[in-house]
Amino acid sequence: MAVKNVEDAQAWEGEVLKSPVPVFVDFWAEWCGPCRMVGPVVDELSGEYGERVRFVKVNVDKAGEIASRYKVYSIPTMAIFRDGKIVKQQVGAASKDSLKSTIDSAIA
Q: What is the pTM of this model?
């Protein structure tokens, strides 16, 4: 399943808050080196989890109000939402194994 870019409140509500499956959200920015390192890993994971987990990227420069609402002050920040609420959160670049472990524990 492809990673979707969310930049406004309407898309956020539909893709994340009302999602019937858990959602992995990658808060990032183009100028952030660690974010660029994590990006390809998020793309790989989206393919591996298929329909079981939705993957969303939020560019904090374009959707600052969404980032502010969830107190995202450092990037990259990855969060897993279920039923519209954060169930797991990780700040900073992480390995694929680490992210996979975080996702697995959140959807178990």
A: 0.94
